[in-house]
Amino acid sequence: MSAFIVEPKTINKIISALDFRDFEYTKRELKELGLGDDPQKLGRAMLALNVDAVNQRYGDDTNHLNVPYTFHPMGVSPIQAYKSLHCWLYQCHEGNVPQQCLFKVMEKFGESLGYHIISSLPEYDRADWR
Q: How many domains is the chain partitioned into structurally?
């Protein structure tokens, strides 16, 4: 597996999706990590985790050119947010990064976002409950 540092806009799409109404649990968990009220701080933490994963993958501690990050809210569909989140999770899946709290919170967010997408589909409404 190869790993790379995602673009800041990928992280912006993910954080922008947290504004959807159904993710109070994720927001609460992020607050417990000290990252819940500041999208800039959350974005920097997500970027740092991504850099850590890349460094662990390639045995490099150069911090990969100190990639700059500034949060910019984006209009994003749930499906785009889901795909961006899974890109970030995949690029962070190196070394001990998947055991870190922020990774686990974002992984749970992906599950919630996926459920939100599926349960919003007309086919879901038409499917039998039992």
A: 1
